[in-house]
Design a protein that fits this description.
Layout lengths: L1 E4 L2 E7 L2 E6 L4 H9 L3 E11 L4 E10 L4 E10 L4 E3 L9 H11 L2 E3 L12 H5 L12
Parallel strand pairs: 3-6, 7-8
Antiparallel strand pairs: 1-2, 2-3, 4-5, 5-6
């Protein structure tokens, strides 16, 4: 089963769990479409995938109307992990963006609140280490 929101197709991967994968350039458009519904953001997570040379971002929304999770996946280049920020559209995404930046080095363009040392100890941040990258020396 699938559903369409704002022209984006979401596939049901489990009961009440719908997923779509988009390019970073499409992220803000799909989030704007989702935000037009009765939703809230549950979490923003990032997964390091060094063998693929990617970092996977998962934006998990809960749709009150549909009583289902809507998940937007974005794969970014691990060597240059840059994606547009959505925190101006969905303020609840701010903490997740700050965590992904501090722990994995994902840059969220347009988010002027990103800083190292949000969760990572200052001595680790000062050495330029992102502790959730699988090749980090932490």
């Amino acid at each position: 089963m699938s559903l369409a929101i704002g022209g984006y197709d979401f596939s049901e991967t489990a009961p009440r769990r719908y997923v779509t994968t988009v390019e970073a350039s499409e992220l803000r458009r799909v989030v704007e479409a989702i935000a037009g519904e009765e939703v809230y953001i549950s979490t923003v997570s990032a997964i390091d995938m060094p063998k693929e040379g990617k970092i996977e971002l998962n934006y998990v929304f809960w749709s009150v109307k549909r009583r289902a999770a809507l998940i937007v996946k974005v794969l970014v280049d691990r060597a240059n992990p840059v994606v547009p920020s959505i925190s101006d559209i969905v303020p609840g995404a701010l903490k997740g963006e700050m965590e992904a930046y501090d722990l994995l080095g994902v840059v969220f363009e347009g988010n002027d609140r990103l800083r190292r040392g949000f969760l990572v100890p200052e001595d680790v941040a000062a050495r330029g280490i992102y502790p959730l990258r699988k090749d980090s020396s932490v």
